[in-house]
Design brief:
This protein is mainly alpha-helical. Helix content is 91%, strand content 0%. The radius of gyration is 13 Å and the shape is elongated.
């Protein structure tokens, strides 16, 4: 996996975790849901990149 893409995907997942935690802390369900969505997107992109890398080798 390209280092730049890996960092972006991990950052998106981390950003989602922060949003989810913040949403829970302040009782904002919308922010919490956005956080979960960003985490899922980041995780999916990481899985896609790992699959691509596996096929290359």
């Amino acid at each position: 996996m390209g280092a730049g893409k890996k960092v972006k995907n991990v950052a998106k997942t981390t950003k989602g975790k922060v949003k989810e935690s913040t949403g829970k802390a302040v009782g904002n369900e919308s922010l919490e849901a956005k956080g979960r969505g960003e985490q899922a997107l980041g995780d999916a992109k990481q899985a896609t990149q790992k699959a691509k890398d596996a096929l290359k080798h």
